[in-house]
Design goal:
Order of helices and strands: EHEHEEHEHEHHEHH
Oligomer: single chain
Number of strands: 7
Strand order of the largest sheet: 4-3-2-1-5-6-7
Distance between the termini: 29 Å
Largest sheet: 7 strands, parallel
Length: 196
């Protein structure tokens, strides 16, 4: 069965210190699965990555994991994915994740999550894709980052239009709904894996 949408989730391979982080990963996966969607993610089964994948699968959604060979053991590749792609490099991983998704959302995570978020946002600004991007600000996790980004605009290193390319908010369901609705209103067909 073809999924009704495909959303890429960036999040930590660790669970973090707050129970809210695990709870929101479960809620996001459940939301995707209950609506017949597809999760695209980094292919691991630890931390929030494993939580969102298992919740999606348990709720009836498809799970596509994409992981580089070098991280198969470190991130414990999730062999329960409907599709598990083991690629050679991080560049291949991110390009394929970008191509397979209709929209992107960042949950709490560390440096890898930040890097993926900023890269997909940069690709949108450059016109490599026009897929919606979101930041889920669970328990204020991204509050200081969002404040810093506002400072970048005030200091003249970014424009408001760049900030307008990313949605953010604390409500998982509302943000997911907005991202999927926006994705459905845009033409599909970019080949990110070929462009980047």
């Amino acid at each position: 069965m073809t999924p009704s949408f495909s959303i890429c989730v960036y999040c930590g391979s660790r669970p973090g210190e707050r129970p809210e982080f695990t709870a929101v990963a479960e809620a996001v996966g459940r939301w995707i699965g209950e609506r017949g969607g597809q999760l695209v993610y980094g292919g691991g089964r630890t931390g929030l990555m494993g939580t969102v994948a298992e919740a999606t699968r348990a709720a009836g959604g498809r799970v596509v994991g994409i992981i580089p060979k070098a991280l198969v053991d470190k991130e414990l590749a999730n062999r329960l994915c409907d599709e598990l792609h083991i690629v050679d490099t991080m560049h291949e991983r991110k390009a394929l994740m970008g191509e397979r998704a209709d929209a992107f959302i960042a949950l709490p995570g560390g440096i890898g999550t930040f890097e993926e978020l900023f890269e997909i946002w940069t690709w949108r600004q450059l016109g490599y894709h026009d897929k919606p991007v979101g930041i889920l600000n669970t328990a204020g996790y991204y509050e200081q980052l969002l404040g810093f980004l506002g400072n970048c605009v005030r200091e003249g290193f970014m424009g408001e239009w760049q900030m307008d390319l990313v949605r953010s908010g604390p409500d998982a369901e509302a943000l997911l709904e907005a991202l999927v609705t926006e994705a459905r209103s845009r033409p599909s067909g970019d080949k990110l894996a070929e462009i980047v």
